[in-house]
Amino acid sequence: xxxxxxxxxxxxxxxxxxxVATLCREAVENHGxxxxxxxxxxxxxxxYELLRAMDLPWAALHIWFGDERCLPPxxxxxxxxxxxxxxxxxxxxxxxQVHRIPAEQGPExxxxxxxxxxxxxxxMDIVLLGMGEDGHTASLFPGNPALDDTRLAVPVHDAPxxxxxxxxxxxxxxxxxxxxxxxxxxNAKAGALARVRRGDPLPAARLAEGEWLIDQDAASPPA
Length: 223
Ligand code: 6PG
Description:
The chain has seven helices and nine strands; from the N terminus they run βαβαββααβββαβαβα.
């Protein structure tokens, strides 16, 4: 488990943005495009804000979402709404290359639609992920059937983190990506992180090898 600890959230966000930029440029140099999966929640926002000031091959980027909450388009609670505000509304990625999860269609229909899109897509180049206090990642929660659902995109019901109905990329897609960057900030995550480190079978522990970017608070003993 490759992990780097940063003094504070700003240092972590700066490193994450620099890593995404480097990996994006490498992907575009290697195969002409970069398929980047964005994480939701609050953790990655600053990284996204820093990315938008960078000189990236935006026209060659394809944006995907690791998960989405089943809320109406434009709802402030949606993960794509956060990404729009922090990054996508500010950079010249062709709109047809921003592959939003149609979560407003409901979990089953949206998961089927996204799975069909993923089936015709290459492996993701970079997946950004967060982790919850219970060790969930994307919308794959402990004990939830979605975690072991082998489809490329999966419907999620009864998520303990509101809203309860979501769509997530399946674990196989997250693990088939070339690079995973997992961003973990705050002492509230310290307990779950310690459990991942010791091998407890939490969803985040089932991610394939990735770069864990952790702030000092999350690396410290749980309060
Ligand atoms: C979501 C995210 C979720 C998030 C973690 C961490 O829909 O909320 O997909 O997996 O990454 O819950 O959330 P924070 O970054 O807000 O702590």
